[in-house]
Each structure stands twice: as C-alpha cells, then as structure tokens.
Design goal:
Number of strands: 0
Number of helices: 2
Oligomer: single chain
Largest sheet: none
Length: about 50
C-alpha cells in the first residue's frame, strides 16, 4: 500500500510540471528513443542486414 501511495504522490507532483518542463521531458524521451533507433540501424548496417 505504501508503494502505491508513494507512486500516487510522485504522479501528482509530475502532473504539476510547467509546460517547459514537460517539453524538455518529452524531448529527452524522444532523443533517447531516436538515439536507440539509430544505434540499432547502425548495428544492422554493419552486419549487412540492411542495404543502405
């Protein structure tokens, strides 16, 4: 029960972020996902799985 209460508190704190903080968080997530996709594509290209 304590974990649920803590998660709820953190969630409520997170929803009170300013638009700038939300934007930066979104950019950070998108940047991380984009970097991961690039690394996967680079690995496939190096192994000859993807004709570039």
């Amino acid at each position: 029960m304590l974990a649920n209460a803590e998660l709820g508190y953190i969630w409520n704190q997170g929803s009170a972020m300013t638009p700038e903080q939300e934007l930066m968080g979104g950019l950070k997530i998108a940047g991380t996902a984009g970097l991961f996709i690039c690394l996967v594509l680079a690995a496939l290209a190096l192994t000859g799985q993807v004709p570039l």
